[in-house]
Amino acid sequence: FGSTGSFFHQDWAAWKGGGSFEANPPFMEESMQLMQDTIHHILLSTANSSKPASFVVVVPCWTDERAHEMMRESRFLRRLLILEKSQHAYKSGAQHSSLQQYHDAGFRTSVFFLQNDHGAAKWPVTAAAIKRLEEAFRKWL
Q1: pLDDT in tens for each of the 141 residues of the chain?
Q2: Contact, 139 vs 89, CB < 8 A?
Q3: Helices then strands (H, E): number in the chain?
Q4: I need a surface site. Which of 25, 102, 128, 136 has the fewest CB within 10 A?
Q5: pTM of this structure
Q6: Which residues contact residue 58 at a Cβ distance below 8 angstroms, ignoring those fewer than 6 apart?
């Protein structure tokens, strides 16, 4: 599906071209912290260039965890969307071996939109885009 390998083992030069990405790391604080640190480094390294960079990060709404706190306080945060418990669904990672592919989320989910200035200009987080995203998360309820 287009993977170029581990997110954490990429050549930093590859990120200098910018782009728009989605991140949904394993729900472990260590993994989420490393992801947040990596995204922050990428956005910092592209902030003074003309290259747009944008990340949509989907993680549990663990507001007491450091990774969540760092993304909430990031200078690159354009929008934080909180999806309430049982108001959205997710597709199981074991969909290949499960009869039920979609599940009600029994937890709150945070969707962070982290962008440099050029990323925010190229891919604005509009009210219409947020509405479509919320509808997509509710589709399988």
Answers
A1: 566 667 777 676 677 788 999 999 888 999 999 999 999 999 999 999 999 999 999 999 999 999 999 999 999 999 999 999 888 887 766 666 767 767 778 889 999 999 999 999 999 999 999 999 999 988 877
A2: yes
A3: 5, 6
A4: 128
A5: 0.89
A6: 22, 23, 24, 109, 110, 111
* Residues 6+ positions from 77 with CB-CB distance below 8 Å: 71, 112, 113, 114
Q: How far apart are CA 35 and CA 39, in angstroms?
A: 6
Give the amino acid at 6.
S
Q: How many residues does the chain have?
A: 141
Predicted confidence at residue 17, as pLDDT, reads 82
Answer yes or no: are the C-beta atoms of 74 and 110 closer than 8 Å.
no
Residue 68: name the closest of 27, 18, 96 by CA.
Answer: 27
Give how far Cα 7 sits from Cα of 21, 24, 38, 86, Å. 11, 11, 9, 30
Of 68, 62, 111, 70, nearest to 90 (Cα)? Answer: 111
59 SS3 class = strand
